[in-house]
Design goal:
eight-stranded antiparallel sheet, Vanillyl_alc_oxidase_C-sub2, FAD linked oxidase domain protein, five-stranded antiparallel sheet, Uridine Diphospho-n-acetylenolpyruvylglucosamine Reductase, domain 2, alpha+beta, FAD-linked_Oxase-like_C, 35% helix, Oxid_FAD_bind_N, Alpha-Beta Plaits, binds flavin-adenine dinucleotide, Uridine Diphospho-n-acetylenolpyruvylglucosamine Reductase, domain 3, 4 domains
């Protein structure tokens, strides 16, 4: 450890109690883990503040000692954003997880950043409300992490991403000052909306400590259906019909190919194929209403009957119980894990304009097949918002190592087409360390403006260096 590191640690020790500052290797180890095991950095220590004031003091101390910081939530991020690189101080929000207030008239709540997303959803449900962001990782992902990455999820088509839920924000800026705008106001045009800069900034502009979040009415009726189609063109025609006939009740429209279903059926002993025939594509559709009654199910049935007759779907199964709905969702949510059964998977979290999905898919997949014959596309995701988890499983005759060696070529094919159709190379998981070079390659102008904002707020570059943008020399 350098003298500077030792001095910083001693100063931090004066601010934090024993559990507030961890620096033994065995204590640090869990904070270096990330879901895909791709990033292996080193940290000086982990600070675990209990309040905004304490966190502000830590940040001031880091600023004085020129010690870089890595904000950390639940460590479920998939792009290495919460992993240290070279001896930074990890600042974990795990001890800041209080509910500060909830207002059922205003339909909003104020929570601290370390509260897990699932807990926020549970608190909202206890008040007959809904926090409409839902991720498979919600038991561990925190509010701070979901704000810092502007997390998406299955309900984006109806409610928007995390950004759309945030009314107010509290954060500690890189110099230790507290930015506090925890207001529940829906209308406030008094100047720049500064909280929006912090949302999606992946911990590079400050550390989010609390947020005032908008809540929606809880659904009182809902139906989930699994549908089979033979093409994504068909899927889009159905999406159009669902929107036209069921309006805002459409809260999810997910898609997956047969290969994904095969992986999940092999991976989950309880899982059952809802259909008696094999189909190329499947959709999971969910409609919900806050109005009481049971009119939504017949309304959806009507749409599906006409879609069957019009050739927009090939088959449909409605969930007849809550468990059946959960089983359909388990098929969709189980893909990421089950894909390991197909060996090495090259993953791309991209988005493209919804109407262009079929052409985009055809163009990229034929180029990929020419580059790596036998490559097995397992592309699934959120049809309704254009977010494709563009995952590629290794060809059956190729070793994992040889397939991994083709990763750069595959990435180039996928990302070139993404740029060509005006899509995004980082749709919901963010940029982190994983995609920072690609962002620099494809969006140099944007990166230059981002760098100007970064140096205005964090001139010393101490807040999560090496994430989102290349490290400054
Ligand atoms: C099984 C699984 C399913 C997932 N599904 C989805 C999905 O559907 N949609 C989606 O968008 N993502 C998904 N993710 C990715 C991940 O869950 C999200 O990115 C989530 O928002 C990360 O939250 P976290 O608390 O774990 O943050 P972390 O992983 O700890 O951190 C993520 C980033 O946010 C920064 N950060 C964390 N806390 C703060 C804070 N308080 N202030 C400032 N910066 C902070 C970190 O520095 C890092 O850059 C999934 C991940 C897994 C493992």
């Amino acid at each position: 450890m350098s003298d500077r590191g030792r001095d910083a640690l001693a100063a931090l020790g004066r601010l934090l109690d024993g559990p507030g500052l961890l620096h033994e290797p065995e204590d640090l180890a869990p904070y270096l883990n990330e879901p895909r095991g791709r990033f292996h950095g080193r940290a000086l220590a982990v600070a675990r503040p209990e309040s905004t004031e304490q966190l502000a003091a830590i940040v001031r101390c880091c600023s004085e000692h020129e010690l870089a910081m890595v904000p950390q939530g639940g460590r479920t991020g998939l792009v290495g954003g919460a992993s240290p690189i070279n001896g930074e101080l990890i600042i974990s929000l795990e001890r800041m997880r209080r509910l500060r207030s909830i207002d059922p008239i205003d339909t909003s709540l104020v929570v601290e950043a370390g509260m897990p997303l699932a807990r926020v959803r549970q608190i909202a449900a206890e008040h007959g409300l809904r926090y409409p962001v839902s991720l498979a990782s919600e038991g561990t992902a925190t509010i701070g992490g979901t704000l810092a990455t502007n997390a998406g999820g299955n309900l984006t088509i109806r409610y928007g991403n995390t950004r759309a839920q945030v009314l107010g924000l509290e954060a500690v800026l890189p110099d230790g000052r507290v930015f506090s705008e925890l207001s529940p106001l829906r209308k406030d045009n008094s100047g720049y909306d500064l909280k929006q800069l912090l949302i999606g900034s992946e911990g590079t502009l400050g550390i989010i400590t609390a947020a005032c979040l908008r809540l929606a009415p809880a659904p009182r009726q809902g139906v989930t259906a699994m549908l089979a189609t033979h093409s994504l063109d068909q899927g889009l025609a159905l999406l159009r019909q669902l929107r036209a006939e069921l309006g805002e009740t459409l809260s999810a429209c997910e898609f997956m190919p047969r290969l994904a279903l095969d992986f999940v059926l092999a991976d989950q002993p309880r899982a059952r194929d809802p259909f008696d025939r094999v189909h190329p594509w499947y959709l999971v559709v969910q409609v919900e209403s806050a109005l009481a009654g049971d009119w939504l199910k017949p309304a959806l049935l009507n749409v599906l009957e006409s879609a069957l007759q019009g050739g927009r779907i090939d088959d449909a199964v409605l969930a007849e119980s809550e468990q059946a709905a959960l089983d359909f969702w388990a098929l969709r949510e189980g893909i990421s894990r089950a894909q390991a059964r197909g060996g090495v998977s090259l993953k791309h979290d991209i988005s493209v304009p919804v109407p262009r999905i079929p052409d985009f898919m055809q163009a990229v997949l034929s180029e990929l097949e020419r580059a790596v014959p036998g490559i097995r596309p397992c592309v699934f995701g959120h049809l309704g918002d254009g977010n494709l988890h563009f995952n590629l499983s290794q060809p059956e005759g190729l070793s994992g190592e040889d397939f991994r060696a083709r990763e750069a070529d595959c990435n180039r094919i996928v990302f070139d087409q993404v740029h060509a159709v005006g899509g995004s190379i980082a749709a919901e998981h963010g940029v982190g360390q994983l995609r920072r070079e690609e962002l620099a390659r494809g969006q140099a102008r944007k990166l230059e403006l981002m760098a100007r904002v970064k140096s205005a707020l964090d001139p010393a570059g101490l807040m999560n260096p090496g994430k989102l943008m290349p490290v400054r020399p």
